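Structure in, sequence out. Go:
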């Protein structure tokens, strides 16, 4: 569901904006610019296929499966073999430009490329919109619980399933 302009959009970094009408083209463009700059600074090559996959993920606040991405790439002449999409998605995740959403077996663009953050993903069970919300307090509590038993966490993902404001209102 595309978003349209409703006031100023400081970016989709705020979870309430992912579920609200806003100038999505502005925030998606801003994230793409930051992602491009970050990849360049890291010496990572954002090939045309990788860039296009990121653009596709940035089109909405939905997570997309690899085959959905592949269908889009194939329709645009980028190839129709699964490794095309999977390699691009893996690259984006490795570079911190996208996240894998396990609950949906899908991928979403990172709305905070280049920033150290521990996101929680708020997933609407009705429309599959995904908001990336800050979860530092949750991560701190998890780190403390792990440290108490001598465990070191290397990676964690917090996913919460529920209803976005629009779907909750419609229900």
């Amino acid at each position: 569901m595309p978003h349209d302009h409703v006031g100023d959009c400081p970016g989709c970094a705020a979870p309430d904006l992912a579920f609200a009408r806003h100038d999505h083209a502005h925030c998606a463009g801003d994230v793409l610019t930051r992602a491009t700059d970050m990849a360049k600074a890291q010496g990572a090559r954002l090939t045309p296929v990788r860039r296009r996959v990121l653009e596709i993920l940035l089109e909405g606040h939905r997570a997309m499966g690899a085959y959905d991405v592949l269908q889009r790439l194939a329709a645009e002449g980028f190839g129709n073999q699964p490794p095309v999409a999977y390699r691009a998605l893996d690259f984006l995740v490795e570079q911190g430009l996208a996240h894998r959403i396990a609950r949906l077996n899908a991928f979403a663009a990172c709305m905070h490329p280049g920033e150290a953050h521990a996101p929680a993903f708020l997933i609407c069970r009705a429309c599959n919109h995904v908001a990336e919300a800050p979860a530092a307090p949750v991560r701190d509590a998890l780190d403390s619980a792990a440290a108490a038993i001598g465990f070191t966490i290397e990676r964690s993902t917090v996913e919460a399933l529920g209803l976005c404001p629009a779907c909750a209102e419609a229900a």
